[in-house]
Design goal:
There is one protein chain. The protein is mainly alpha-helical. It has 2 domains: 108 residues, Rna Polymerase Sigma Factor, Chain: A (Orthogonal Bundle), CATH 1.10.1740; 55 residues, Arc Repressor Mutant, subunit A. It has 7 helices and no strands.
Length: 174
């Protein structure tokens, strides 16, 4: 008899909003500099989360990480909409991104990458972290790990492919 996979747990949107809504709003506000647009972003995040709730897997990412990945995509969509239709933004709004918004965006990106790195194999993770994130030369890392440089390059190549797949599974768009 075949075992059934457990039924997906329905997303409790009210609980998710209570836990993460204010933080998502602050993130969107810092990114867009517009309170109304930030509210629209939060609304869209929870609408998309509700619609895609069957694809959320708590074993792959925390609810917070998943919601912030959705928020990042919605903020990008909103920014593109403003870029194409600038008349939709109030004339008094400052289009420049505040410096703290860029820092917050980098922080969310770092969380998402960290979560994706947890999902790939240890050898691939080590190769990517040492060469790409720490910027160390391949020869130095290979010598430290006791492997040929070609093996390290192969691990980096396949590790990046696995990382892209993990980001895809998390719902992160490039």
């Amino acid at each position: 008899m075949a075992r059934r996979s457990p039924a997906p747990v329905p997303l409790d949107v009210r609980a998710a909003y209570a836990a993460h809504g204010a933080e998502l709003y602050r993130f969107a506000l810092r990114q867009l500099g517009d309170g109304g647009a930030a509210q629209d972003v939060v609304q869209e995040v929870f609408l998309r989360a509700w619609r895609a709730s069957d694809s959320y897997d708590p074993q792959l990412a925390s609810l917070r990480t998943w919601l912030f990945a959705i928020a990042r995509n919605v903020v990008v969509d909103e920014a593109r909409r403003f870029a194409v239709r600038p008349w939709q933004r109030d004339l008094t709004d400052d289009p420049a991104t505040p410096p703290e918004a860029a820092a917050d965006d980098r922080l969310v990106d770092a969380w998402v990458v960290e979560e994706a790195l947890r999902r790939i194999g240890e050898e691939h993770r080590t190769a990517i972290v040492q060469t790409h994130l720490r910027g160390r030369p391949h020869g130095e890392v290979a010598a430290e790990l006791g492997i040929p440089v070609g093996t390290l390059r192969s691990r980096v190549f396949y590790g990046l492919k696995a990382l892209r797949l993990a980001l895809d599974e998390m719902g992160v768009e490039p």
